[in-house]
Design goal:
Elements: E1 3-6, H1 11-22, E2 27-31, H2 39-50, E3 55-59, H3 67-71, E4 79-82, H4 91-94, H5 96-115, E5 122-128, H6 152-171, E6 175-180, E7 183-184, H7 193-202, E8 206-210, E9 216-217, E10 220-221, H8 222-233, E11 244-249, E12 255-256, H9 257-268, E13 273-277, H10 292-298, H11 306-321
Helix pairs in contact: 1-2, 1-8, 5-6, 7-9, 9-11
Length: about 325
């Protein structure tokens, strides 16, 4: 029986698929391969997966009512890793309807699909550190209140958590939500700061540095994120009241944005032309993951320092992406 991974052409999704394939699982990936960012990058990720005989792929829109049920009839799916979503805080200011469709309607369709699968075992789904909104207490803990989102993206991710809780309560659907903290690394997303800065610095263009570089982010390397996802997949919640849980997946070491740029400059051997700007709407001053719960339940600890992780991204960007990927 294959493990279903939604968002298989995405950054985290493609890496999770690779890891599942490496350990011998059959993987069925789905994605609509939209043009929010460069589809060529998404196709290249899929090409890496297609080399594995245990991987199959369907290009479908999960937000389309009953699309999953129709496409996957008879597949005997018992585990789902749901990573498909409309990402990006800033884009939610420009195209809010895309977030309602992909993140809320799409999540509902995944829940309904799982509920209809005989013998279903576990749904692991992506949430976000954005749900902590303007919280002042740090580090952010899973027990903190999350009722003050400052972006529509954050509101949709919190909505997903609430819908999942309801399905766990009403139908006993076993689920684990993972609140990802600023994931970065090779094969990443071009709309993220590390990619935008790298491209601009190499091209001699200015970079926009918000909040005078004083923002802090809990940058989490992709390999650490994948390790956490894989650890969780095989261990559904055991409790029946209700069988749902949420974990932070972060690095537990927030970095100042200015220091982050300093590291990129050293790795690239080029000084950045920094343009200081005020905070953007929907942004938060800092993120900081309390990783106690995930370590307690799964023995997970992030291992990749920011300097090493950014070094791996820069090597990939220069050798593969700008090298003609």
């Amino acid at each position: 029986m294959p493990i279903l991974v939604t968002g298989a052409a995405g950054f985290i999704g493609s890496h999770v698929c690779l890891k599942l394939l490496e350990r011998g699982d059959d993987v069925l990936g789905v994605d609509n391969v939209n043009d929010y960012y460069e589809p060529r990058l998404k196709r290249a990720r899929l090409a890496r997966l297609a080399a594995a005989s245990r991987f199959s792929f369907l290009e479908i829109d999960i937000a389309e009512p009953m699309a999953l049920a129709r496409a996957l009839s008879g597949q005997n799916i018992t585990k789902v890793v749901h990573l498909a979503a409309q990402a990006g805080v800033r884009y939610s200011l420009e195209n809010p309807r895309a977030y309602i469709r992909s993140n809320i309607s799409g999540h509902l369709e995944v829940l309904e699909f799982c509920r209809g699968c005989p013998g279903f075992e576990h749904l692991v789904y992506a949430s976000s550190s954005s749900v902590y909104g303007g919280n002042q207490k740090v580090p952010f803990s899973e027990s903190d209140r999350v009722d003050n989102p400052v972006s529509l993206y954050a509101a949709t991710k919190r909505s997903d958590e609430l819908m999942s809780h309801t399905y766990a309560h009403l139908f006993g659907l076993r689920q684990t939500g993972l609140r990802f903290f600023t994931v970065y690394g090779p094969w990443g997303r071009p709309d993220m700061a590390y990619w935008i800065f790298t491209k601009a610095i190499l091209e001699g263009k200015p970079i926009r540095v918000f909040n005078n570089g004083e923002m802090r982010r809990d940058f989490t390397y992709i390999d650490d994120v994948v390790e956490a996802v894989i650890a969780v997949v095989d261990k559904p919640p055991l409790t029946d009241a209700p069988p749902g849980r949420i974990y932070n997946v972060g690095n537990n070491q927030p970095a100042r944005l200015g220091d982050f740029i300093d590291i990129l400059e050293r790795l690239l051997g080029v000084k950045a032309n920094r343009q200081s700007e005020t905070m953007q709407p929907g942004d938060v001053a800092r993120t900081f993951a309390d990783m106690t719960l995930l370590e307690q339940d799964f023995g997970f600890k992030p291992r990749t320092s920011l300097e090493i992780g950014l070094g791996k991204f820069v090597n990939w960007y220069q050798s593969e992406w700008t090298g003609g990927l």
